[in-house]
Amino acid sequence: MAKEKPVILTCAQPTGQLHLGNYLGAIKNWAALLDDYQCYFGIVDLHAITTPYVPAELRKNTLTCLAQYIACGLDPAKCRIFVQSHVIGHTELAWVLGCLTPMGQLQRMTQFKDKARGKESGSIGAGLLYYPVLMAADILLYNADLVPVGDDQKQHLELTRDIAAKFNNTYSPTFKVPEPYKHGSGGRVMSLQDPTKKMSKSDANESGVLFLLDPPNILRKKIMSAVTDTGKEIVAREDKPGISNLLDIMSAVTDRSAGDLEKEFVGQGYATFKTAVADAVIAHLEPIREKCNALMEDKETLNKVLQEGASDAQRRANRTLSKVYRKAGFMERPTLER
Ligand code: ATP
Ligand code: MG
Predict the structure, then answer these.
(1) Which ligand is nearest to the CA of 149?
(2) How far apart (Å, rounded) are the C-alpha atoms in residues 320 and 154?
(3) Superfamily for the 7-186+299-328 domain
(4) Is 201 a catalytic residue?
(5) Do domains 7-186+299-328 and 206-294 have the same CATH topology?
(6) What is the pLDDT of residues 137-180, one digit of tens each?
(7) Which of the residues 78, 166, 197, 201 is marked catalytic?
(8) If 0-12 CB within 10 Å is exposed, 13-18 middle and 19+ buried, where does residue 158 land?
(9) 209 CA to centre of ligand 1 in angstroms
(10) Is 197 assigned a catalytic role?
């Protein structure tokens, strides 16, 4: 029998709109994995309620996130895309794992400290502290071999590895200890308004962020008013973060090297260069936006993808959860009538 392909699990919260950084630094790379791995993409709505949010927006963002994933190349015929709250097992496993996790380790997580800073402990939900345990459950529920994580999530993956090892030692070998997966390409896309900061969904200054669903005139406006550097040359250099960022963006969307682009724009002004960057970004994002808008009109297809994704994810989750419950000493569940 052919060897099973390794399992890759990637989760992202359905908060806000996706931007060019999410696409070039994450989703585009995930799409390249579909043939070689069994890929599970979780839209983790349970995580999205750890900080204040608006329920109706969460529901809408969850569906838009799915449509954008598909439009960006995550072909549902080749992977499973599921919504976390549709699969029974994430929170159940998190409870068991939470009972093995030292409180102090959670309190030392950088992201918790960052998000809790300056707030009264009475106003911080316990979910924010518990978030990394739920993330460990997301990964271990699918017995993932590899997990692509950004820098900000590395510490949480380390915790997942610790918890997996602790469960295996306390009960008996059950979980694979997952490895981080490093993408070969796709650097950081920086904000157009402050090229020393990464482009980010949560940036209050939206003019520095190119959203995937921005219409062409907005994309053009944002790129034309991007902060540039002193001097006139169009070169990628440390003292020219604004131009370097635009060159990187243009290089990524045209598949041409930055060096090649530098040669093309020798002696040309910033305005000509920015117009070319805007044309290239618009041409690249146009089909994605159109596909996403068409999908948003086709709820039947979106629901079918979620239905199939959840069924497949649930089958895999059930296998792990029943094993864990048995090892933890819980009695077998009686069959209930529904
Ligand atoms: P937030 O501001 O809410 O943290 P974000 O813009 O950082 O949002 P995330 O949802 O945290 O987006 O990240 C989703 C994925 O996109 C991660 O894999 C992350 O590493 C990647 N990513 C986010 N921003 C960029 C960027 N500017 N350049 C490249 N990759 C990015
Ligand atoms: Mg982030």
Answers:
(1) 1
(2) 24
(3) HUPs (3.40.50.620)
(4) yes
(5) no
(6) 999 999 999 998 877 788 999 999 999 999 999 999 999 999 99
(7) 201
(8) middle
(9) 12
(10) no
